[in-house]
């Protein structure tokens, strides 16, 4: 009985990590092949795994098993070095819905929710995690217009994210050598 309770608690905890934030809906009509490639991080909410990094980008490539390989990279000026994190992502449900689970640490997954996307050209994406403590603005270019950034802020605020805590990522340096 204790094992069943423990297994149930673990399952609920893991399911909560791949859930959706309140009022956040993943995009439909998501096309993974168009999402692949390089994305630049324009803004984010702060977390220890990215703290102090600039020139952050991600490279998404198709895995043989149908998932997506993730390579995140950012520059630490404090340590004068590039930091990399390799992970993998899989769709939660339909591959046409922008709701994936991503793992950088073995069997532990967290939500990757694409809740806004330039469906015409796939030039920007707004991404959250399992709750409103995680938020990213991604772009195919290292810089965006103030109008594009304001649109992101407006959307984030309307959904209840703490837009005042957002960090605009410095994208003025060189590019990650591992993400080509």
From TrEMBL:
This protein's UniProt keywords: Cell outer membrane, Lipid-binding, Lipoprotein, Membrane, Palmitate, Signal
Gene Ontology terms: cellular component: cell outer membrane
GO biological process: response to stress
GO molecular function, one term: lipid binding
Presence of keyword Ribonucleoprotein: no
Superkingdom of source: Bacteria
Major site of localization recorded for this protein: membrane
Protein topology in the membrane: Lipid-anchor
Gene3D superfamilies associated with the record: 2.40.128.20
Domain Lipocalin/cytosolic fatty-acid binding: 31-171
Compartment(s) where it occurs, according to its Swiss-Prot or TrEMBL record: Cell outer membrane
Record PANTHER family: APOLIPOPROTEIN D
Subunit-level organization: Homodimer.
Job description of the protein: Involved in the storage or transport of lipids necessary for membrane maintenance under stressful conditions. Displays a binding preference for lysophospholipids.
Entry similarity comment: Belongs to the calycin superfamily. Lipocalin family.
Protein name: Outer membrane lipoprotein Blc
Species annotation: Parendozoicomonas haliclonae
Protein encoded by which gene: blc
């Amino acid at each position: 009985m204790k094992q069943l309770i423990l297994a149930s608690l673990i399952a609920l905890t893991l399911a909560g990590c791949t859930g959706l934030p309140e009022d956040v809906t993943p995009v439909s009509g998501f096309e993974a092949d168009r999402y692949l490639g390089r994305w630049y991080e324009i803004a984010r909410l702060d977390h220890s795994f990215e703290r102090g990094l600039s020139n952050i980008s991600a490279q998404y490539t198709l895995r043989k098993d149908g998932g997506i390989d993730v390579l995140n990279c950012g520059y630490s000026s404090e340590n004068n070095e590039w930091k990399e994190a390799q992970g993998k992502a899989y769709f939660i449900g339909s591959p046409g819905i922008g709701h994936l689970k991503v793992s950088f640490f073995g069997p532990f997954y967290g939500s990757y929710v694409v809740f806004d996307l330039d469906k015409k050209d796939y030039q920007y994406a707004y991404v959250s995690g399992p709750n409103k403590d995680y938020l990213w603005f991604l772009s195919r270019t290292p810089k965006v217009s103030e109008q594009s950034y304001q649109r992101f802020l407006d959307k984030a605020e309307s959904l209840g994210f703490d837009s005042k805590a957002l960090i605009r990522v410095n994208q003025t340096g060189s590019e990650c050598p591992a993400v080509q």
